[in-house]
Amino acid sequence: MSAAGISVFYGAMDEETACAETCRQETEAVSVGAFESTRELCALDLTKLPPVPGFYSDVDAHTRDSISFLHAFVAEVTQPTERDGREDVEYAPTQIVAEYFRWRFRLYGPGSTRPRLDGILYPSAQGDGGVNIVLFIERDNFEGVEDGSLRPDKILRLKSSKTRTFKS
Predict the structure, then answer these.
(1) Cβ atoms within 10 A of the Cβ of 168, count?
(2) How many whole angstroms separate alpha carbon 65 and alpha carbon 52?
(3) 105-149 pLDDT, tens per residue?
(4) What's the 3-state SS for 94-125?
(5) Cα(75)–Cα(67) distance, rounded to whole angstroms?
(6) Could you tell me the pTM of the whole model?
(7) How far, in Å, are 54, 60, 70, 96 from residue 50 at the CA level?
(8) What is the dihedral of CA 70, 72, 98, 93, to 10 degrees?
(9) Phi, psi of 143 (to 5 degrees)
């Protein structure tokens, strides 16, 4: 959901989904980290969309079209993409929509520096029922486990990490 050069955090809600999303057949080992947020986060949850209302429902056309668009967006985001060098072109439509959400719902109000929307939850492209998350945070917003303290300017803290081996 991000174009080259735009920093975001990609994660999954569980280890299996993270591995399914990032590992290839030839993957022998992967590093997995568990993170915790240092404050409450607000994410657009695209995993629980309401059904698209019927044409003759009581829902107005704008709402129906908006829900229909979100369903189409989720269908696009959850399509597996071959890593063949054309990813930038294939991902462009979803990157544009994600950037729209990121900046349209950027701040709580005038003078605020706190984001109103921190990220987006979306279904795994691997079709395993897993949930992914993209957080609109940059590299400087992470804190590792080295010093053990939570600093107020950091949004995510690495709780633990391990290496998971697939082949021996």
Answers:
(1) 4
(2) 8
(3) 876 666 776 667 889 999 998 867 899 999 988 777 877 755 555
(4) HHHHHHHHHHHCCECCCCCCCECCCEEEEECC
(5) 12
(6) 0.80
(7) 12, 15, 10, 23
(8) -150
(9) -130, 135
Q: Which long-range contacts (CB under 8 A, 24 or more apart) does 149-158 make?
A: 150/38, 151/38, 152/38, 154/38, 155/37, 155/38, 155/39, 155/41, 155/118, 156/9, 156/35, 156/36, 156/37, 156/38, 157/35, 157/36, 157/37, 157/38, 158/33, 158/34, 158/35
Which pair of structure tokens corresponds to residue 64? 């129906």
Note the maximum CA span of the chain. Answer: 59
Say how far apart CA 47 and CA 132 lie, in whole Å. 9
* Position 65, amino acid: D
Q: What is the pLDDT of residues 17-47, one digit of tens each?
A: 988 888 877 778 888 999 999 888 889 999 9
Report the C-alpha gap between 2 and 102 in whole angstroms: 10
